[in-house]
DNA sequence: GAGCACTGC
């Protein structure tokens, strides 16, 4: 094939008017399958109606007659709510009655609920209280092909539950051709994975049903030689699509914010100077870091004679669907997170996409009519891509997962029947940390009450430990706030274009000498007291209002957990180094020390020491760490510190949310840990 | 002196 010639290989498509949603035709075979086999794998494109229709069929077929629920899990909160709303509408009932949903902070279900949509993470938490999920007659795991950690854990749990509950109907729904793999997982015996499942067993246990989605043909084009610079190539291709192709919007997949902003700028400049065309090109960015208002712009209808080109990250691969996309440009890369169990450092690196990912991206072009996908790599490179993404559970810090499994009664995590087993060094690293935190004893058993309580708290293990230790340090109230604020993952401060300096000034107003954790505490307390939780206060102080209200919710939820554990929380005892009235009541420096000591008792594994050159070294000494520019410790003097997060991006390793501590405290709160690692 | 794809309890 010659170099890109959009227009040269256009395939005229035969337009077939869709009669009914295809799933209606498959209703009978679905009902037969579900009544014959305990496990059904459903293949169907997004938009085939499987998510909304299947639960209704099941309800009509009497699966809720004995007061049991049909549970449908989703990997994302928005999906759970929007799908629930649609099904309620289709059934003509009020949301929360017969059809409801349950996500963190929002439970819209009642005693009359028969169909319940929920996130898979929440269903796992329900299993902590009701290990056999006895309230459900059917569980449908939707979007299983996305292979999130929660989905993978849930699949393992469901397989285990099925051995004790023959009456439980399981439906796995997936968009790709991993169906055989899902079915094999549920049909083979968990004790001997080396033996292929006997056909007879397979026949009795499960079946696969395919729902042909309403899709349109997509013409896929490759480069004939690799692009030297895919960003430049992207701009070229977008411009030539605009000049040579018929109408339709363009979706471009890039890897991150920087690239996207560059591309948007390049297109604005180039289309401003290109006067030849009657129609304009409107470039729009789409990535998670944008405010929701900015994100919403991609859904706006373009003016007459204007073609929309959306430059997006992977957010547009599964989470966000934009109607009217006819052309897709795929750079072939994605920024992927991985975890190095040896160093305990997470990395974020651009990696080639998988074939599954590439076809998902291409599929975004054919939702409303025939489309085209321009892959900015050769057909040869495509052939060499991995079939599927490495599942998240095989490249993450597993401490939260292992703790959760232990709390679910799975003592031998290594023998747990994972859909994809995580590498043993990841599991070992997680066990090591959980032992150091006191969540597990020397036999690897969950400790009580500490480990069990840590598993219940909706924060990561190190923060859970900090929170549960806070009472003995006399700073529960403050740690609750810090836990809530660090859960926001950095979305605290907010600024519009060109206002970064102003934001920095605002942030300095809340700055506390001891570090970021106390600064976050300070900002939160100003928000709830001086700011009276108002948007105006946030605006003036460059705080993200949505994040701050979320922090209030998270804090309340965590507080309720502590109260359930009979850990007293005194909301009146607030720390405020800037309020002179309080300063006389209690010595803020002493309070700050309690908080810093308490943080050390949970974050001792995240300690570092500043070097004369201003960079940090971890305790082992081998890794050069940099204070992230968002940290107060960026360009400030310190000695020993603990930090909330560590991540390697590009060629640097950054630490974020940093607080000054004393070296002695590390030995005081984690003697065993530091003895071991200094050997 | 400078930056992070995405999701979830």
Written description of the protein model:
The structure is a single chain. With 679 residues, the chain is an alpha/beta fold. The chain has 3 domains: 190 residues, P-loop containing nucleotide triphosphate hydrolases (Rossmann fold), CATH 3.40.50; 173 residues, Rossmann fold, CATH 3.40.50; 223 residues, no CATH class. The protein contains 26 helices and 21 strands. α14 crosses α15 and α25 crosses α26. The longest helix is centred in the last third of the chain and has 20 residues. It binds one DNA strand of 9 nucleotides through α4, α11, β14 and β21.
Please give the structural blueprint:
Layout: H1 27-36, E1 39-44, H2 50-60, E2 69-74, H3 77-91, E3 99-103, E4 106-108, E5 115-119, H4 120-129, E6 136-141, H5 149-164, E7 169-174, H6 179-187, H7 199-205, E8 206-211, E9 218-223, H8 230-244, E10 249-253, H9 257-273, E11 280-286, H10 292-296, E12 306-312, H11 315-318, E13 325-330, E14 333-340, E15 345-352, H12 355-363, E16 371-378, H13 379-383, H14 399-407, H15 424-436, H16 450-456, H17 461-473, H18 476-486, H19 500-510, H20 516-528, H21 535-541, H22 545-564, H23 580-585, H24 588-603, E17 607-610, E18 616-618, E19 624-627, E20 640-649, E21 652-660, H25 663-669, H26 671-678
Parallel strand pairs: 1-7, 1-8, 2-5, 2-6, 3-5, 6-7, 9-16, 10-12, 10-13, 11-12, 13-16, 15-20, 19-21
Antiparallel strand pairs: 3-4, 14-15, 17-18, 17-20, 18-19, 20-21
The protein binds one DNA strand of 9 nucleotides through residues 75-77, 103-105, 119-122, 124-125, 146, 148-150, 255-258, 287-289, 313-315, 317-319, 334-337, 348, 350, 392, 400, 404, 456-459, 489-490, 557, 626, 628-630, 634-635, 647, 649-650, 652, 654, 656.
EC number: 3.6.4.13
Enzyme class: hydrolase
InterPro entries: AAA_22, DEAD-box_helicase_OB_fold, DNA/RNA_helicase_DEAH_CS, HA2_WH, Helicase-assoc_dom, Helicase_ATP-bd, Helicase_C-like, P-loop_NTPase
């Amino acid at each position: 094939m010659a170099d890109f010639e959009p227009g040269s290989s256009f395939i005229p498509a035969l337009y077939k008017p869709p009669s009914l949603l295809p799933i209606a035709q498959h209703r009978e075979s679905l009902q037969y399958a579900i009544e014959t086999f305990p496990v059904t794998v459903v293949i169907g494109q997004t938009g085939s109606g499987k998510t909304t229709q299947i639960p209704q069929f099941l309800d009509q077929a009497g699966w809720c007659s004995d007061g049991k629920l049909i549970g449908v899990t989703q990997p994302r909160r928005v999906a759970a709510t929007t799908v629930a709303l649609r099904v309620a509408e289709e059934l003509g009932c009020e949301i929360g009655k017969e059809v409801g949903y349950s996500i963190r902070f929002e439970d819209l279900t009642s005693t009359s609920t028969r169909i319940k949509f929920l996130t898979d993470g929440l269903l796992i938490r329900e299993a902590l209280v009701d290990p056999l999920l006895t309230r459900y007659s059917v569980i449908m795991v939707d979007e299983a092909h996305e292979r999130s950690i929660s989905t993978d854990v849930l699949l393992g749990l469901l397989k285990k539950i099925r051995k004790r509950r023959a009456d439980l109907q399981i439906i796995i729904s997936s968009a790709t051709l991993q169906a055989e793999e899902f079915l094999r997982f549920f049909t083979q015996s968990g004790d001997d994975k080396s033996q292929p499942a006997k056909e007879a067993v397979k026949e009795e246990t499960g079946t696969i049903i395919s729902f042909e989605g309403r899709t349109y043909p997509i013409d896929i084009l490759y480069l004939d030689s690799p692009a030297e610079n895919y960003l430049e190539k992207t701009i070229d291709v977008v411009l030539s699509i605009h000049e040579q192709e018929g109408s339709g919007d363009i979706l471009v997949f890039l890897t991150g914010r920087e690239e996207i902003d560059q591309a948007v700028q390049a297109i604005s400049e180039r289309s401003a100077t290109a006067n030849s065309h009657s129609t304009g090109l409107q470039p729009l960015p789409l990535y998670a870091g944008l405010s929701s208002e900015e994100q919403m712009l991609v859904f706006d209808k373009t003016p007459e004679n204007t073609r929309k080109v959306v430059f997006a990250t992977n957010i547009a691969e599964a989470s966000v669907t934009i109607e009217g996309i006819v052309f897709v440009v795929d750079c072939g890369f994605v920024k992927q997170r991985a975890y190095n169990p040896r160093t305990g450092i997470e990395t974020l690196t651009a990696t080639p996409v998988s074939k599954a990912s590439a076809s998902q991206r291409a599929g975004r072009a054919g939702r409303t009519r025939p489309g085209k996908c321009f892959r900015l790599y050769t057909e040869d490179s495509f052939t060499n891509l991995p079939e599927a993404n490495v599942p998240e559970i095989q490249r993450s810090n597993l401490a939260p997962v292992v703790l959760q499994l232990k709390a679910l009664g799975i003592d031998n995590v290594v023998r747990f029947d994972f859909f994809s087993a995580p590498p043993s060094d990841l599991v070992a690293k997680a066990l090591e940390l959980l032992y150091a935190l006191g969540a597990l004893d020397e036999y690897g058993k969950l400790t009580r009450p500490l480990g069990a309580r840590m598993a219940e708290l909706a924060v990561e293990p190190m923060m859970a430990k900090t929170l549960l230790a806070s009472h003995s340090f006399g700073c529960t109230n403050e740690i609750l706030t810090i836990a809530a604020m660090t859960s926001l993952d950095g979305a605290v401060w907010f600024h519009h274009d060109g206002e970064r300096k102003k934001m920095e000034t605002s942030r300095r107003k809340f700055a506390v000498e001891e570090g970021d954790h106390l600064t976050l505490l300070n900002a939160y307390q100003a928000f709830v007291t001086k700011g009276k939780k108002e948007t105006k206060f946030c605006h003036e102080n460059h705080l993200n209002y949505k994040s701050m209200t979320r922090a209030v919710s998270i804090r309340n939820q965590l507080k309720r957990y502590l109260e359930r554990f009979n850990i007293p929380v005194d909301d009146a005892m607030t720390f405020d180094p800037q309020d002179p009235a309080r300063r006389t009541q209690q010595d803020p420096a002493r309070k700050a020390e309690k908080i810093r000591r308490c943080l050390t008792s949970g974050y001792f594994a995240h300690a570092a020491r500043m070097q004369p050159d201003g960079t940090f070294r971890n305790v082992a000494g081998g890794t050069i760490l940099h204070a992230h520019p968002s940290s107060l410790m960026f360009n400030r003097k310190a000695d020993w510190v603990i930090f909330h997060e560590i991540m390697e991006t590009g060629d640097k390793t950054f630490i974020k949310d940093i607080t000054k501590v004393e070296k002695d405290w590390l030995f005081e709160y984690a003697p065993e840990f530091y003895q071991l690692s200094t050997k």
